[in-house]
Amino acid sequence: MLFLFIYRTISNPAKPYINHQSYLFTTKSSNPHSFTASYLIKSCGLPPDSAILASKRLNLSKSPNTPDSVLAFLKTQGFTKSQISKLICRRPTVLLSDPQNTLLPNFKILESLGLPKPNLTAIVAANPNHLLNKKFQETAPLCVGFLKSVLQSDDKVIDAVKRFPLALTYNKRVYAEENIRILLDAGVPNSAIRAMLTWQPRTLFAPVDRFKKIVKDVTDMGFDPSKVRFLWAINAVKAMSKSTWDKKVEIYMKWGWSKDEIFIAFEKYPWCMMASADKITRILDFLVNTMGWKPSYIVKRPIVTSFSLEKRIIPRCSVYLYLGEKRVIEDFNFTRWLMNSDTKFLNWVLKRYEDEASEILKVYRKHLKDAKM
After folding, report:
1. What is the mean pLDDT for each group of 10 consecutive residues in the chain (373 residues)?
2. Of 24, 118, 319, 364, which has the highest C-beta tally within 10 A?
3. Taking CA 367 as the corner, what is the angle to CA 309 and CA 279, rounded to the nearest 5 degrees?
4. Spatial separation of the C-alpha atoms in residues 243 and 257, rounded to whole Å
């Protein structure tokens, strides 16, 4: 096999191996790192820089057969070449694993969930350090049992695992189980908890002390635990540090919002605090300085912060500004101009302003093209 060929080639001091970037690989005994780097490049598809870095903490020359058996195992599990390269780049020591005794048990657990092969291999390739260690064999079955007991649906369990595969590595008693009890005690309905565990499972897998404080903070803000927004507010607060939260508050205040208005917007649409600080700044800058919107108008429509500035806001608003120059436009209707889908928006605006249809398309497409550049 290729591994043994490289092994024999590099082990011959009379024929040193030189790769395409002129790295000299000497004998296995004198330079095992070179042998390892060469194998990672040729057999695993790693870039030379990544291979050389990995070779400093990995020695394959002592186990000439194991890496080939690991690669063969991964291929039988349905991994593509790019996934194998990605996996090994993130966890090179997997090449020293025993496929049958170390790797296979973990894969059997994942397969038992009913995950489609493409999803399974993608999840493992992205998270090999957590999903390919022995601890996984202890935590995963318990977590799967817990998810099934709460979600009461195999399909929902699969959805939750696909969205947050690292949940399978958590001690469910220390994290999600206790956090769910906190939510129930606060008055959150079971149905809302199941929905959150399915679509945003990461939110519930948090240290209990921090989660308890977040629940208290959100309750103190005035959110109603019986409403879905209560959980989305928890998700928003949990997703960032206090310094990040404070920075976003400062940005909104810089653009003329009071703290009360920020709270009103957050209560109406918690996701307004989930956008990055840079995105919030750029959207507010355009809406205030280009569109002339007042802060009070934006406060009532915080959903605008979740729209794409380049692909939705600027192209559509540019059409509005063009029509304004032609004096054929009425007051800005937020729903028609920004809430509707692209297809619905174009159908409406082209029909409503039929005489300007060709120019409208030019303006709209120009700004969409600019967004893709």
Report:
1. 42 41 42 82 93 89 86 96 95 94 93 89 94 91 91 92 92 84 96 94 92 94 92 93 93 95 92 95 97 95 96 96 89 95 96 94 90 66
2. 319
3. 15
4. 19
Tokens 């998700």 found at: 235
CB 253 within 8 A of CB 262: yes
Can you say whether the dihedral through the CA atoms of 199, 204, 210, 216 is positive or negative? positive
Task: Determine the Cα–Cα distance for residues 34 and 41; give it in Å rounded to an integer.
Answer: 11
CB neighbour list of residue 1: distance below 8 Å, 6 or more residues apart: 68
Q: What are phi and psi of 17, to 5 degrees?
A: -95, 130
Amino acid at 367: H
pTM of the full structure = 0.73
Residue labelled with tokens 């020293």:
96
Q: DSSP letter at 6?
A: H
Write the CB contacts of 178 (distance below 8 Å, at least 6 apart in sequence): 208
